[in-house]
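Problem: given the chain below (460 residues), write out its structure.
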Amino acid sequence: MPVTGSLWHATLPAELEGPGRTSLPGDTDVDVAIVGGGYTGLWTAYSLAERDPTLRIVVLESEVVGFGASGRNGGWASALLPMSLTTMAAEHGRDAAVRMQRAMHAAIDEIVRVTSAEGIDCHLAKGGWFGAARNLAQVGRLDDELAEMRAFGFTEDDVRWLGPDEARNMLSVSACHGALFTPHCAAIHPARLARGLGLAVERRGVTIHEHTRVTSIEPRRLVTEHGTVRASYVVRATEGFTPTLPGHRRRIVPIYSLMIATEPLPQSFFDDVGWADRQTFSDARRLVIYGQRTADDRIAFGGRGAPYHFGSRVDPSFDLHTGVHEGLHHTLREIFPALGDAAITHRWGGPVGVPRDWQCSVGLDRGTGLGWAGGYVGDGVTTTNLAGRTLAALIAGDDDDPIVSLTWVGHRSRSWEPEPLRWIGINAMVRLPISADAYEERHGRPERWRSAVLSRMTGH
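Solution.
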């Protein structure tokens, strides 16, 4: 039977298992207090300490560093944003939308820089992203995506179409009509990155307290089970776990994304399918799927489809769903027939944070000292790096830094509907892409009405 837990946590080397960090010992005063020991909190701490080594910074984590999505995700350091270029341009203008996308491209290289400088071996391979079109409806969607990129001035150096033969030479997936390819993506071992960042911020003088649950976030102070932290600035970096905080239940909803991993595959498999540069991959179906070739030659593969739980509940039991995990295995074997009877060794999952308008944001209220970042909708590995550097610039009051004028700064999403409307609407949204994909598979043409509903709900 597969291990029920994250492959990434299971394959951490001993030196990254953690230094036995303590809980908060009692009341304390600091300059900046950060709630959440995932990527957002760690990149914020790292960027602040890099700007001003004299700052007293504390990170409070209810479990351990990298416990949440930062240690469980698909390992894509991509330039993807949950909101489209068209959506950003409608609110902020074309040039601002392009600048935001370029900032995401640059953030991937910033991750490369920091991991190299800090000696963080997170198995990073910048092989790009391969998005396959496996039926004619998917060809149309990828054509539209490429047309949007071209309309905003992005060239073949940023994204290009691969014909069927060129696509198969890069990564041979079944029923391939072609693919989009962008070099702006890297595969990583996400838990190695999270734990390595934790050690890096501690080397820079940041204090991390694990097993310290924050029960209340207030202007310039945090209340925990172990004491009160007073701070000039308080940063909420809790993403999919945000609804567990009092007063935040409708701010972000937790939608579960689940994953599987194969056993290490023989060289004969890769001789058959290619995949020389560890490109991340997906196809253009409506239901989100994502995968990568790991450094030890497994396939780590995930997707959506798990139900939303009433009241925005988050619980470890929701990390597993037999139907979704079996569906992922079926899909993976369909995409790669050469996989044969290769064993699935790990099954896991976790919540991603979704705002009502599908737009991630970062901001700081100087009047209260409260900062925040999140709402990445699963596109957080790179976005958190940009968020951390943005929060650091905002806290430093560096108005000359162009990063503080990016489109997402100060954006506030409206609240989700109260229950039971939230439960009904989100679970309908979870099912719509499944039935839309089934229609397109049967009829070989784009599905219209479900796709229109999804586009209205997500802004894509």
